[in-house]
Amino acid sequence: MRIVLVGPPGAGKGTQAALLAEQLSIPHISTGNLFRANISEGTELGRRVESILREGGLVPDELTIAMAAERMAQEDAQGGFLLDGFPRNIGQAKALDASLAEAGQKLDAVLDLEVPEDEVVKRIAGRRMCRRDSAHVFHVEYNPPRREGVCDVCGGELYQRDDDRAETVRKRLAVYHEETEPIIDYYRAQGLVSTISALAPVPEVTRRALAVLP
Ligand code: ADP
Ligand code: ADP
Predict the structure, then answer these.
(1) Mean pLDDT of 72-81
(2) Which residues are part of the catalytic machinery?
(3) Which superfamily does 2-115+180-212 belong to?
(4) Which Gene3D superfamilies match (predicted)?
(5) Crossing angle, helix 13-24 and helix 202-212, to 10 degrees?
């Protein structure tokens, strides 16, 4: 199954993607996590994108599309994948469609996570991410780790992302409304979109997602 997950920053895409990917036995591909891994490893790509992430802008399409295509070409993604944070604008959505079409493939579903803005702001403010693996995500109030500052899954250090500060969050929300939201209509025209309310506990959101996926 080939699925795209959309929703504002802090909606719970990464949290749900990790759970759904496990249930569906497909890889979770997060462009945000891939960029952060490049930054922490100090790669050439990481150096080019670091200030863009810190300021909450979008990385140029050519870099993003090339990185996503490389990851999707890996063997574990041949049978399907769950994309989290990609595509993030119409240009990326068209590039994804074109590369899937070239391989005789298409998307099966686009899952749109709906969360009111005051709630995403609270989710982002309390988010803590693991330095060893950014698929390990916690929240100081809603999903606290057993030991403060320590990842329950792997013992890694938990940190607050640079771009989760209030000023940057406003910018990221504006970018979401301007650039990313239009892809929902683009995919709606293809009959692919299921919108669910993600204003519920994590397991309930997972149930809602599994109930609407084809
Ligand atoms: P969130 O889900 O909180 O919005 P992500 O981890 O998905 O955050 O993305 C973090 C940052 O990485 C974005 O603000 C942007 O700078 C960059 N990024 C991630 N995915 C893309 C993409 N598809 N296109 C451009 N930039 C991206
Ligand atoms: P996204 O990838 O969309 O930016 P995350 O999955 O990183 O979002 O979630 C943002 C924050 O909200 C994290 O701290 C996470 O623990 C928390 N969170 C995720 N889903 C829920 C939920 N259903 N209820 C409460 N908090 C949640």
Answers:
(1) 94
(2) 13, 88, 127, 161, 172
(3) P-loop containing nucleotide triphosphate hydrolases (3.40.50.300)
(4) P-loop containing nucleotide triphosphate hydrolases
(5) 60
Best residue among 137, 158, 160, 206 to mutate for probing ligand 2, ranked by most atoms within 8 Å of CB: 137
Does the global pTM surpass 0.90? yes
pLDDT of residue 134 exceeding 90, the answer is no
Domain locations in the chain as residue ranges: 2-115+180-212
In angstroms, rounded to a whole number, what is the distance separating the alpha carbons of residues 30 and 118?
Answer: 24
At 140-150, the pLDDT tens digits run 999 999 999 99
Kindly list the distances between the CA atom of residue 213 and the CA atoms of 39, 138, 195, 202, in Å, as whole numbers in the listed order: 33, 25, 10, 17
Residue 98 near residue 43, CB atoms below 8 Å: no
